[in-house]
Amino acid sequence: MAEENKSSLDALSALCKRRGFIYHSSEIYGGMPGFWDYGPLGCELKQNVKQAWWQFTVRGREDVAGLDATIIMHPKIWKASGHLDTFADPMTMCKDCKKLMRSDQVKDIYADQKKKPQPKIAGSDFFCPYCGGELTEPKPFNLMFKTVVGPIDDPSNVAYLRPETAQAIFAQFQNVLATSRQSVPFGIAQMGKSFRNEVTPRNYTFRSREFEQMELEFFIRPDEAVEILHGHVVTLADNPDLDGPVQDDWGWEVWHKYWVEQRKKFLNAVGLPTERFVEYWQKPDELAHYARACVDIEYDFPFGRQELEGIAARSDFDLSQHQKWSGESQMVFDDPLKQSAKKLDEAARKAFIEKVQADWTSRGKDAAAAEKFCLDLFDGKYVPHVIEPSAGVDRLMLALLCEAYEEEKLVDDKGKEDVRTVLHFSPKVAPIKVAIFPLIKKDEAQDKLAREIFTKLQKKVNVMWDVSGAIGRRYRRQDEAGTPWCITVDAQSVEDGTFTVRERDSMKQTRMTYGEFLDMLYTALEF
Question: What are the respective helix, strand and coil percentages of the chain, to the nearest 5?
Answer without folding.
Answer: 40, 25, 35
